[in-house]
Amino acid sequence: MKKFLSLLLAMAMTLSLAACGGSPAQDTPSSEEPADDTQQTEETSGIDASTLYAIGGGATGGTFNAMGNLFVQFFNDAERFGQFSSTATTGGVQNVIFMENGTTDFGIIGQSVFVQAVDGTDSFAETGPDDNLVIIAPLYSAIFQQFVSKDIKSEADLRGKKLIVGGPGSGDLAIAEALYAAMGMTFEDFEPLYLGSTEGAETMKDGHADGAIALTQLPFSTFVELTNADKAYLIPLEQDTIDAMCEPGDHSYPSYYPAVIPADTYKNQTEELPTFATGTYLCCRADLSEELIYEMTKYMWENIERLNTLHAAVADLTIDAVKDIEGMPIHPGALKYYQEQGVL
């Protein structure tokens, strides 16, 4: 009987403790203990590090391709924005198209193609203005270079020749169409060869093409090899051609600005050559989250010295270059960062 009463008393005490919130020793932390900081950050942040993103670059051997691969490495190293991969493309025009249809999320785009896309002209006349294309950051200035075989001395000599104009859907092709129109020519006035940088260089090296164009940094390694082998030479552009290329016309923004190729940039180029140049941008879709692009932009500029070491094209890039895109369509996340820094 005493044992039975003792058992009842023990059960009553247990129920009393439970009713008052008491409990035996617990393995789980109390509600007063601070939550894990890492877990809290992941729960409150709108950035999912497991999200897959694709960056459109350009043709193999070109600077766009190198830039696409560079930013894949750069942002993957951060291990907090997502998982990035590079998508092979023919260049700027295709990068815009791929972002429009959701194949890619980011892309390397030249200023001229960007202007055409946001205005819905030239290569984008059928699709109309692209309101979902915005800039994250400027990267480098691309200088137009017309390489030719030794029997070509001026623009007039280009007629009737075999000229490499870029791959189908590439930014080079869009530039070639505008350039030769500024010279008073159409593609019917010569034989166009639709090849990218690497294939074009090999074709000139083999003597199967008379000219090729490049809109990229100085010097362009692909053409350094050709000029060193005496397989290609530079010619200057006429001032009327430069003026025509730099005129905004009906576009919302200018596509090009006057520039020069300094003397001795390439072998046998002893004089400064007049030409035009354009900006090159890291772009994205406007519908990507403001928080994501803000943090990516911040990471880029706070680590600019490391980015400078990854490719010669961006070796001299500083945040001051952002002033060149003032007034253009910029992603709200990037714009927020630039305004915080007092750059825009």
What does the radius of gyration come to? 29 Å
User: Proportion of β residues?
Assistant: 15-25%
Span between N and C termini?
Answer: 88 Å
| Model regions low in confidence, pLDDT < 50 over at least 5 residues | 1-44
State the helical fraction.
25-40%
Determine the number of helices (DSSP H or I, runs of at least 4 residues).
Answer: 12
Strand tally is 10
* Mean pLDDT over the full residue set: 86
Shape: globular
Largest sheet, in brief, is: 10 strands, mixed
Look at the helices and sheets and give the structural class. Answer: alpha/beta
User: Helix and strand string, N-terminal first?
Assistant: HHEHEHEHEEHEHEHEHEEHHH
What does this structure look like?
This protein is α/β, with parallel strands linked by helices and 344 residues long. It is built from twelve helices and ten strands. It is globular, with a radius of gyration of 29 Å.
Describe how the helices and strands are arranged:
Layout: H1 2-19, H2 37-44, E1 52-56, H3 63-78, E2 83-87, H4 92-100, E3 106-110, H5 111-119, E4 133-148, E5 162-164, H6 171-182, E6 191-193, H7 197-205, E7 211-216, H8 221-228, E8 233-234, H9 239-246, E9 257-261, E10 273-285, H10 290-302, H11 304-308, H12 332-340
Parallel strand pairs: 1-2, 1-3, 5-6, 5-7
Antiparallel strand pairs: 3-10, 4-7, 4-8, 4-10, 9-10
